Each structure stands twice: as C-alpha cells, then as structure tokens.
Amino acid sequence: MPHNNARHETEHLYADPPRAEAGRRLSDAILRLRRSEQLQAERAVRASGLSSVDLTALRFVVQGHRDGHDLGPRDLIRMLDTSSANVTNIVERLVVRGFLTRVQHPTDRRALHLVPTPEAIDAVDDAFGAHHAAVVSVIDRLPAADAEAAARVIADIADALEVLEKV
C-alpha cells in the first residue's frame, strides 16, 4: 500500500480544488502532465544509462555547446547547485564514459572547457528527443487560439509559482 500511495502522490492537491468543473479538469490535466513529465525524466535516465545528476550535467554541457557557450566545471557547480568535489566526480565519470573531453582554455591556463563528444550529443538526443517531439507534435496540431490560451494559462501558473520561489 505505501508503494501505491507514493506512486499516486502527484495526483493530489494540497489546496482546495478549483471551484468550477472546467477548472478541476484543468487541474487534473496539469497534475497528469506533471506525472507524465516525471515518468519521462525517469525514462530518460534509464535510456541514457547515467545517473540523474550525470545526465543533467551532460544535458547542460550539450546545450551550452549547441548554443555556442563553452562550459567549464565552475559553470556546472552553479547550474547543478552543488560542490566542486561533486562536479569533479561527475565530470570524471562522464570523461571515463567517453561523453566529455576536457579542453584547455585558450587564454587562461588554469581553466578548462568541457566539450561533449558526438556520443554525448547522441545520448542526450536519444534520452529526450522522443519526449520533446511528442510535445511539439501535440502543440503543432492545436488551433492558434487554443495554443494562445494554453500559453497564457501556463505562463500565469509559472508566474504564480515563481513568486513563491522569491518568498
């Protein structure tokens, strides 16, 4: 029973439900989306064969590379909100697995850049590609007015949640 309770924990609101039936359906859909996102994150970790933190670090480095930003260990410390020792271990594991190479900074001999290998890029794409393609597929089928309404609702919810982060 406890396993079953934990499995369905994300189905519950810890506030009064929305007053209108349409609002309750929207709330249920948001909770279902959240569950689906969590399951996809777990699937991505399994598909990659990496730990969650290693996959997150690798995703950051790959995205930085795609955006033309060279990331180093200090960037990962901030992005992962962890210690230098943890990042050192993460980077070492990713280097040993053939996902990252360390490259000397061209002007600062003390600094290193982390460069994803083609295998790393493939691993990140394999881990997240189907998930993101499924989301885009649904969005692309929406009439423009529905997409605009959904965008407003999601942005408003995100704004409300970000305010809580500042409290």
Explained architecture:
This protein has helices at residues 2-7, 21-48, 52-66, 73-80, 84-96, 118-141, 144-166; strands at residues 100-104, 112-116. With 167 residues, it is mainly α. A two-stranded antiparallel sheet has the order 1-2. Strand 1 and strand 2 (112-116) form a beta hairpin. Helix 2 packs antiparallel against helix 6 (118-141) and helix 4 packs across helix 5. The longest helix has 28 residues, at 21-48. 15% of the residues are buried.
Unreliable segments (pLDDT under 50, ≥5 consecutive)?
Answer: none
CATH architecture: Orthogonal Bundle
Kindly state the mean pLDDT as a whole number? 91
Question: What is the β-strand count?
Answer: 2
Spatial arrangement of strands, main beta sheet = 1-2
> Which range does the strand content fall in?
5-15%
Apparent shape: elongated
Task: From the structure above, extract its key features.
mainly alpha; Arc Repressor Mutant, subunit A; two-stranded antiparallel ribbon; 7 helices; 70% helix; elongated
